[in-house]
Design a protein that fits this description.
Elements lengths: L1 E5 L1 H10 L6 H10 L4 E5 L9 H10 L4 E5 L3 H10 L3 E4 L20 H13 L3 E6 L3 H10 L3 E5 L10 H16 L3 E5 L18 E4 L1 H22 L3
Parallel strand pairs: 1-2, 1-8, 2-3, 3-4, 4-5, 5-6, 6-7, 7-8
This protein binds pyridoxine-5'-phosphate (PXP).
Pyridoxine-5'-phosphate binds next to β8 and α8.
């Protein structure tokens, strides 16, 4: 199982001050040095964290494959065609949501837009996946669209008391996708405690983690930063 790290939250922190700190390119270098497998960013319609310039700069400078999370809109399709990320993960997007709230409703997405995006992906060697709730019906629909990869929504594992049925469902659906020859990625709400519930790791291509890695990084490095600052202000 490979690791994809979502750095949107670094952009959120940067945007709070309107300058370039923390810098995404600096984060990129650390991610490259730490040998993660994929760098994930979500270009949202409202550009609340990652913006168009970030996307261009990261694509230009990254030695890591870029996974672009995006909604299936004309604007995003145009951007994807121009930037040509290595991976695209289609996600649902609601303007007022705090984060992605669930998998795509595959019955409602525009088949015309999907067809256009698939053509762009196929001719530019971009792997397209769709973020779905782990259900057989969704997996069958993905197959019928001619899409070869999925990202299964693991959000329900991010609870104080994790429901055994959710654990069972996600592991069964990882198996099911694998049996159906789909590339299986997983993501959302995963952390040091709940990653243990993922049983079929050799069947999972990539796990995408954002919020936990960035927030835990604050606590793991806070003592180091304080120590450096204390030495700087010593008389
Ligand atoms: N995968 C997808 C499709 C997402 O939308 C997100 C959130 O941006 C993640 C993974 C990462 O989720 P988290 O930030 O909870 O680790």
């Amino acid at each position: 199982m490979k690791l994809g790290v979502n750095i949107d939250h670094i952009a959120t922190l940067r945007n709070a001050r309107g300058m370039n700190n923390p810098s995404l390119l600096r984060a990129l270098k650390i991610c490259e040095k730490s040998k993660i497998d994929t760098l994930t960013i979500h270009l949202r319609e409202d550009r609340r964290h990652i913006n168009d310039k970030d996307l261009r700069q990261l694509k230009k400078n990254s030695k890591l494959p870029i996974n672009l999370e995006m909604a299936l809109t004309d604007e995003m399709i145009k951007i994807a065609k121009k930037i040509k990320p290595n991976f695209i993960c289609l996600v649902p997007e609601k303007r007022n949501e705090i984060t992605t709230e669930g998998g795509l409703n595959l019955e409602k997405i525009s088949k015309k837009k999907l067809k256009l995006l698939l053509t762009i992906c196929n001719s530019n060697n971009i792997q397209l996946s769709v973020f779905i709730n782990p259900r057989k019906k969704n997996i069958e629909i993905v197959k019928s669209f001619g899409i070869h990869a999925v990202e299964l929504h693991t959000g329900p594992l991010d609870r104080n008391k994790v429901n055994k049925l959710d654990i069972k469902k996600i592991n069964e659906m990882i198996n099911y996708c694998y049996k159906k020859n789909l590339i299986v990625n997983i993501g959302h709400g995963l952390n040091f405690s709940n990653i243990k519930y993922i049983k079929n790791r050799h069947k999972v291509d990539t796990v995408h983690i954002g919020h936990f890695i960035i927030s835990e990084a604050i606590f793991l490095s806070l003592p180091k930063v304080i120590k450096i600052f204390k030495s700087l202000i010593k008389l």
